[in-house]
Model the fold of this input.
Amino acid sequence: MIMSLTDYAGIAGLFAAAAVAVWMLRNHRTVAPTARHRGAPTLRLPRPTHPERASSRGSR
Done:
């Protein structure tokens, strides 16, 4: 059976995607613990401040 150029390109793309996925998983496991200590931004948002509550406390 003769394979066309698009067949080879598709197989090469699958291998490339698998290689990138393995590289990202390995890189994520090794970098994530050290990145937290370096002050990397996280997805947690700061607590919202409520100035209207603070001002109403002083008037009571």
